[in-house]
């Protein structure tokens, strides 16, 4: 079955302009065109587009996605290079996830902090809390904010 740009965009949940942009940037050499120049997407193109979407969400630059596509179009002789590319991107995503987890931990701590202060009617109640009085899941975030094991006003 053949799909139009609009139909494929709907399947992917993205604007048709995204697919046109990808094509303009050289990311869709596998997409056939009609004699009139209209893009003709096939079912197997969906997987390619899903991978492109994944790489874009993973923070990969368009130029690097283009490199991947070109390697893939060359066949098996680029397997090792493609594996290296995906391994590097996976490590970059893991680093981003660790940063986001630290951010979430601090946000969770601050929510607990202000929920406790709201209940007490003042933030003063939290000034002299020992580490043991802070819920275990928030201790690392508090230490991260204070940069020491001594108390701090946060």
Entry keywords:
mainly alpha, three-stranded antiparallel beta sheet, 154 residues, 6 helices, single chain
Give me a quick take on this structure:
The protein is mainly alpha-helical and 154 residues long.
Characterization of this structure:
- By secondary structure, the protein is mainly alpha-helical.
- Helices cover 64% and strands 5% of the residues.
- It has 6 helices and 3 strands.
- A 3-stranded antiparallel sheet has the order 1-3-2.
- β2 and β3 form a beta hairpin.
- α1 packs across α2.
- The longest helix is centred in the middle third of the chain and has 42 residues.
- It is elongated.
- The protein starts with a strand and ends in an 8-residue tail after the last helix.
**How many distinct helices?**
6
Low-confidence stretches: none
Estimate what percentage of residues fall within beta strands. Answer: 5-15%
Helicity, in percent?
55-70%
Secondary-structure content class: mainly alpha
How far the N terminus sits from the C terminus, by CA atoms, comes to 60 Å
Rg over CA atoms: 25 Å
Count the strands?
Answer: 3
Overall morphology: elongated
Largest sheet strand order: 1-3-2
